[in-house]
Task: structure prediction
Amino acid sequence: MSKRVLIVDDSSMMRKMIAKLLQPPGHIVVGQAKNGLEAIDLYKSLKPDIVTMDITMRDMDGLAAAEEILRYDSSAHIIFLSNLDEEIYRAEVERLGARGFASKHKAREILDMIDETDSEG
Result:
């Protein structure tokens, strides 16, 4: 089942790579943001099914943006995608209630996480 996805990453190259990764399974990229402030605004206006979120960004990082999005919509599905060490951020990601964390080097893992949201309803 295709999902509407908001991609949040400060790297335009990374946003393009994620968008390309999401196309073959039929997911639709409804928006792209380069920082957490943009992510919050786009989430509210676009109401995507899934958000892929980088952690380190200027203006507002992904953790703060995710917290704000989840405060606005507690059922938001957020998947963190970062080059940072997962073990350092795992507790914070779980505390926020995010759907998962994948390394940018293993970005294909987000497809499995998106599929898992289908089975959760």
